[in-house]
Amino acid sequence: MHSRAGRDLTAYLPDVCAALAEHLPAGVILDAELVCWDMARGRTAFADLRRRITAGRGLAAEVAQRPVHLVIFDLLRDGRHRELLDQPLAQRRRRLQRLLSGAPPQLALCPQTTDPDLVQAWFTDYAVAGIEGLVVKDSGKPYRPGAVGWKKVRRKTTTEMIIGGVTGTATNPSSLLLGRYDTRGRLRLVAQSHPVKAVQRSELAAGLQPMAFQGNGAGHPWPRPLPAGWSMNLTDRKPLPYVQVEPLLVAEVEVDGVIDGPGRHRHLCRHVRLRPDLAPDDVAPLCP
């Protein structure tokens, strides 16, 4: 089991790998996505999936408490070691359906349709479950590794967040670390932005006020550097250096609908503009 970046994840997914080994012949290569489901919240939980990477000796307990599913959407090599990359998607799909016939629920076939009404229903109704959008593919196309032969359609909206830190420097901010206050008045990290455009950096720098501390930075609600466990990246285990700033500026950002844990946005957001007309207390608080 390898991540998109090539990292071996096998050791963290003994339950998924056991299901694959039991049901599928050796030599099969699949394109799929890992999903952890939060029964209490009724939605996907990326934070729970990431716990597999950081669990250490507690991995067995994580496996028992938070099972992971593999949602499979393509077949690249079959059980006879035949490469299927040059076959059209429709043909690979038929082979995949036969291969997964009788598979356990842990190995799920990703739904697919050509019905535009059903597509619109998926796009609208599945957002509450943490589904970020749709992937549109040509059923007659082959599979081209490393090439974009499809289009991802994400749900997008804008919202306001409080700037609590920046990567880079306060005079030349690279990206924003963004938060919202919870019901106890604590600023919680909820998102990180993509790199900020050069034309926006001077405006941000003019308003940012770096915080001065003694010792290790006590007084700011977030540790410095940010621990690896706070990252939105599944496999990144490196702490993130950043500059702590006074949480005085409100930014309007573009986000998708994929939220994990207490209002945490799984994917990077895009900084749209500063909102000097809003104070931090005007930003909607996190719901418990």
UniProtKB/TrEMBL annotation:
Keyword check for Ligase: yes
Cross-referenced SUPFAM superfamilies: DNA ligase/mRNA capping enzyme, catalytic domain
Protein name: ATP dependent DNA ligase-like protein
Catalyzed reaction equations: ATP + (deoxyribonucleotide)n-3'-hydroxyl + 5'-phospho-(deoxyribonucleotide)m = (deoxyribonucleotide)n+m + AMP + diphosphate
GO biological process: DNA recombination; DNA repair
ATP-dependent DNA ligase family profile domain mapped to chain residues: 61-186
GO molecular function (one): ATP binding
Membership in a protein family: Belongs to the ATP-dependent DNA ligase family.
Keywords: Ligase
